[in-house]
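User: Assemble these into one structure.

Assistant: Restating your components, then the assembled model:
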Amino acid sequence: MAAVAVAAPPLLETRGLTRVFGGLVAVSAVDQAVRAGTIHAIIGPNGAGKTTLFNLLSGVLPPTRGEIRFGDARIDGRLPHQICRLGLARTFQNLQIFANMTVLENVIVGRHGRSSAGFLSAMLRLPAARAEAQAACTVALSWLDFVGLAPRADDPAGSLPYGQQRLLELARALAAEPTLLLLDEPAAGLLGREKDNLADLLARIRSSGVTVLLVEHDMGLVMSVADRVTVLNYGKKLFEGSPDEVQADPDVVVAYLGAPEGA
Amino acid sequence: MSKLAHPSSLLPYGSLLLLVLVAPHLPGIRSFRHELVLVGILAIVAIGLGLLMGYAGQVSLGHAAFYGLGAYTSGVVSKAGLHPLVALPIGLLLTGTLAYVVARPIFRLHGHYLAMATLGLGVIVFTLIRQLEPITGGQHSLIDIPRLEVAGFRFDTDLSYYYLVWACTCAVVLTGRNLIDSRSGLALRAIHGSEVAAESLGVDTTGTKVKVFVLSAVLGSLAGSLYAHFSTVLTPHTFGLELSIQLVVMVVLGGSESVFGPVLGAALVTLLTPIMREMSRQITGGSGGQVEIVVFGLILMLMMVFLPRGLVPGLAALFRRRAAAPAPIGTLGPAPVPAGQAVETGALGAVRADPTGREPG
């Protein structure tokens, strides 16, 4: 398994990726590869640049310097919707649910990049557009089922409890059928059982062939599901290795975990 | 998804159709056929503006310009000898292109720059219409525009033109509703819910907003063409800022969440304006002035405070409260929908906020 993973080309690769806000270097010359089929976690203290890194990867922010390769394509400088259509979907640390829609409609929006009906075919209700809408609905329902939210399909999305809104974002991102899924603190605010459920979902997502890159503060979750861990500190890459190696590295312990028993 | 099949969702459409068919024959309304034609024409512009305001969250203060462009293109081109049905698409193309050129750079910016830009556009188009006398007739009006004639049938009575215009209006209502209900409509609501999330899910936010704006401008042009062959005389002051503001009032009054809102708004504003003028003339005993501008300003303020979603969603909520009883047949109001919490949002720059996502009508 490990040998195969090393031999495969990285699905995502950054070189010298840098983002400067005024005088602050939020992400500093980060070289990072994410191998296909893995769950790769990014950890680091608050302000280490994890969310900025995600915003660069997903196109929400353009990089100041450096390049990003996703599959065969250079994606730095591309717009978020273009990157999504290449197969990269994400969730948000501060939830970005469409509160003005139902749960199901939220997930149907996830199908946007995978469908094509335009204004004209929609206005005329052409058979192709209707078939596409029906198909989007079916696929969306299956992803709701995957995260266990199918019974809430017709409820207003804003009425879901916090933990379920996180799952809804996950289902919505999965509906875009990404090859790389970026999860920004998916366990934040989740309770014990919800975290176990999330770990289980992440493992199932990986086994379905989707690569997962996640930012997470919950060390228990990271250490139990991640294949590989990168530690960021002050925008720089401090360390990369397996969960065991990360826990054993003295620099990481000092910078992030604080004390040896902190994990 | 296939809501057309649902009987309760058909009710508002059936009611509108019935009303449209019988209205010009009802006693008391017969003599207002001319006004009803204008209502239908302006409803088309208002539906387009409603899509822009309710779904792209942007206000246009220059829609009279698109209306005017359509009208003058149809007038000038058909006077030059081309058939009105050839002149009409020329107007659509011209207006659509202009709208695209204006909107493309503006929608890249986040914020309400469109209102400013369209305000400027409206002034420019108005001035051009007035100054390009050799083409538009300027202050002397463009006169003797040929009437519409299709396959030997001349639409030269108010009644025949009424049915022509309202057939167009009904088609716009239906296609507008289809759009709201589609992948693109969902994308527009998503943009309103969270722009960054919509983008990250593959929605081209800039492109989608530009498309709505172009569509709404093209609908303005279509209505303008219909007006040209109805009125047969075009004067510049018809297409000034005053009309642009009236159009915004129509949308705010009726509500932009549903395609019926702008239709109701167009009817109220168009029919009330002459009444208000007459009343003010009698009260002031003579000149009268432009009292309707004051009243429209007042309406805008009152709507924002008390019924920010407009009359149609307000009526829908009323029906919903009486959900047990079926809605009276023949009303313009929407069908009762399963109780959903109504979230108050401004009609200006706000999307249908009904969290159930059901379009009220």
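Residues 1-5 of chain A have pLDDT under 50 and may be disordered.
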